[in-house]
Amino acid sequence: MTLENPEDNKLVVLAKATRARTGAAQGAALRDLDGRTYAAATVNLPSLSLSALDVCIAMAVASGAKGAEAAVVLGDGVVVLDALRDFAGTDVPVHVGSPAGQI
């Protein structure tokens, strides 16, 4: 399925490529209010576990972003939006899809 916003489709491509490259359970991509994008995969170490979306949010915050326009999460597992809501509010669209990129 193709999203209406071409910029959101770019997020799907980034999330899918990141997940495939790493073999992680999830891949995610986020676009900040300045149009910068962040792509990440799930981190699952004995001492650190982060969802792919949490990693994207951390990257955006560390880069000085003040919010987000949209996010995509692809893969297996539950998508928890608490950190995104803390960072960017409740109006940010989040597109959730399969590992293959089907939204």
Task: Report on the architecture of this protein.
The chain has 103 residues and is an alpha+beta fold. The protein is built from three helices and six strands; from the N terminus they run H-E-E-E-E-H-E-H-E. It has a four-stranded mixed β-sheet with strand order 2-1-5-6. Helix 3 links the parallel strand 5 and strand 6 (94-97). The longest helix has 17 residues, at 6-22. The chain is globular, with a radius of gyration of 12 Å. The chain starts with 5 loop residues before the first helix and ends in a 6-residue tail after the last strand.
Oligomer: single chain
Helix percent band: 25-40%
* Beta strands, count: 6
| Rounded Rg | 12 Å
Distance between the termini: 6 Å
Shape: globular
Catalogue the unreliable spans: none
- Proportion of residues in β-strands: 25-35%
Sheet of most strands: 4 strands, mixed
- How are the strands of the largest sheet arranged? 2-1-5-6
Q: Give the H and E element order.
A: HEEEEHEHE
User: Mean pLDDT, nearest integer?
Assistant: 95
What descriptors fit this protein?
103 residues; alpha+beta; four-stranded mixed sheet; two-stranded antiparallel sheet; 6 strands; globular
